[in-house]
Amino acid sequence: MVYSFKGYTPVIHQSSFIHPLAAVTGNVIIGRNCYIGPGAAIRGDWGQIILEDGVNVQENCTIHMFPGKSITLKESAHIGHGAIIHGANIGVNVLVGMNTVIMDDANIGDESIVGAMAFIKAETIIPKRSLVVGNPAKVVKEVSDEMIAWKTKGTQLYQQLPADCHESLKEVEPLREVPQNMKMQEDVYKTLRDFMKK
Predict the structure, then answer these.
(1) pLDDT at residue 104 is higher than 90
(2) Span of the secretion signal (predicted)?
């Protein structure tokens, strides 16, 4: 669901995938290989929202701002299920955890990881490579090379997902019983704890 608003029409690169149950409105620019999940709302009615290449905005996220503001989610930003970004800028290769809220004029430094359910107050500046948790959120340590490698691998799955959706996602009638030959999906990504064990 892509809507123009007051003469502003979203610009979306053809390689990106916007789920039919997502809503993209107004002054929004979406780069290459971005994934926007069902239930996500990216609302550029009062200001501009830029998603650089490889960004994913997962299910039930909201991206919005106060009037006259413009925000950028930089390359490979990874916005977890249910997160709210309201007038904040997100750095390169940042992970925003599920159900996190990031408020106006906050800036999240490149390669930071924000834990699930964190609350980042307005105008907070998070330095690069910070691990941020809590409500109110606090920097608890620096992100290690291993942690950012794990994050980057997870984001790469989402950067492949738009092509997979363009190729294979289709509306169907459900099956009424489980097929006998049904296969499980591949185990291609580990939790951080399992990733660190290898």
Answers:
(1) yes
(2) none
